[in-house]
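Entry 14. Structure prediction run on the chain below.
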Amino acid sequence: MICPICKKKVSLLDAEAPFCSERCRVLDLGAWASGDYIISTEPAFERDNGE
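Output returned:
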């Protein structure tokens, strides 16, 4: 497996998997917290404008 942050090889048995280190794990968490990453989906329904 490859660390999604720095692209180093990672074993699934490593304590920080899927990251190679605590540093990469914290960087990823920070990106989520700051809004750099988003999960976009289409709206489940469209609102009726009354038209």
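The mean pLDDT is 88.
Filed with the rest of this week's runs.
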